[in-house]
């Protein structure tokens, strides 16, 4: 009986996570980006792969893993394409968390955050 209850709890948890995903087709949002600190380098992401601060990756709350998005810094018009491989950001009011490499390309390392446009690309 305990095993059955455990399986039911796990399946409803997984179903709840999957139902929160959105269709990336036509996704286009504006918001605040931040980036992961070096203390996360090598730790597992929600997708299961190790976080690499030197890769062009990002965390998003609801886009499916593997989605490629173009992130544009609205202050300087610099853009980078990243792949979603983690969940987050976990800070209220943030849209996306970028790897250090992506943040570097957007020239937002000094400020730590930037106003960005995030557009899903057709994969």
Automatic annotation (TrEMBL):
One of its GO terms (cellular component) is plasma membrane. Keywords: Cell membrane, Cell wall biogenesis/degradation, Lipoprotein, Lyase, Membrane, Palmitate, Signal. The keyword Phosphoprotein does not apply. Residues 29-118 form the RlpA-like protein double-psi beta-barrel domain. Its EC number is 4.2.2.-. Lytic transglycosylase with a strong preference for naked glycan strands that lack stem peptides. HAMAP family: RlpA. This is Endolytic peptidoglycan transglycosylase RlpA. It comes from Pseudomonas haemolytica.
